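Intended use. Records like the one below are meant for learning the mapping from a protein sequence to its folded structure. Do not use them to infer anything beyond what is encoded.
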Amino acid sequence: MDVELSLLRLLVEIDRSGSMTAAAETLMYTPSAVSQQIKRLESIVGTRVVERHARGVHLTDAGRLVAAKAVAIETHLSALAVELSDLRNARAGRVDLGVFPSFAASLLPDVISNFRAAHPGIELGIMSSRLRDLQQMLQARTVDVALAWDYAQLPMTAPGVDSEVIAVDQTVLLVPSGWKHRGRVTLSSLASEQWIVRTGGHAITTVFRRTCRDAGFDPDVFIESNDYMESQAMVAAGLGLAVAPKLTTRYLRDGVTAMDLAELPERRILLCRLEGSAHTPAGQALRAILIDVTSGVNSP
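Structure written out for the chain above:
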C-alpha cells in the first residue's frame, strides 16, 4: 500500500477538528481539494474513512484505524528527524578508532576523556593493535578511522587507505641519568657509543642507521630490543644509548634521561581512513579531538 503522508495528515486533522472545512483552513486547502484527497485515500485503502452527518464528519472504524497508524507514523518520523539532526550535528552516533600501542599508552586516555566531555551522546569504540593489523581493520571496516605512524624517509604504503599527517613526534636520545659527554652533543660525536635499537627491521632502526651513516659512522649495536620499555631498562642499566619517539617517553623510567637531538628524524602521526571515504559527523568530531590532543605531543 502506497499512501502519501499528506493524505494521512489530512485524515488526522479531520479527526481532530471534526470538520472537513476546518481541516481545509488549517492545512490551507480548498474544501473541494479536501474532498478530492479523501476520495483518493479511500481509493487507496479500499474502504470509506469518513462519514458526513448534520454537524460535520466523523471517521469510520477504518478511518480511526488509519488515523491512529498515521499518528504513530508521524511520531516515528519526528523522532527520526531528531535523531538524524543529532547525527548531522555530532550529538549522537558511534565512531570506532584504531590506535597503535605507544599512542594507547600515552595520549589515548586524554583523547577518550576529552571526547566524552565534548560529545557525551556519541559512542566511542577503541581497538589497539600493530600497524599491519590496523590497516586490515580499516579494510574490514572494524574501525572507522585509525592512527598510524611513519617517517618521511620511510613513508607508509597502504593500498586503499587515505592518510593525513596530524602531528609530528620528535625522536629523542635516551641516556643513563647522570651521563656525561664532553662538548656539544651531536650525532657524530656519539660514534663511539654502543647502541640499543629496536629489532626485526623496525622502521626507527632503519632510519636511525641511515641518519648515522649520513653523519659518517655505522652505529655499534649491542642490543636489539623488542619494545621501548626494554630499551629504557637497558639504558638505565648503562648498557648503551637508544633513540625513541618522544611519545614513548611520557612515562620515563627511573635512571633514564631523554635529550633532544635535532639531527634525529621525526616520526609522523597519521590519521587514516578507507580511500575515498568521508568522515561522518562523529568521525569529524573525533578528528578535531585527536588534532587538539596531539598538538601538544612535543610540548616540554
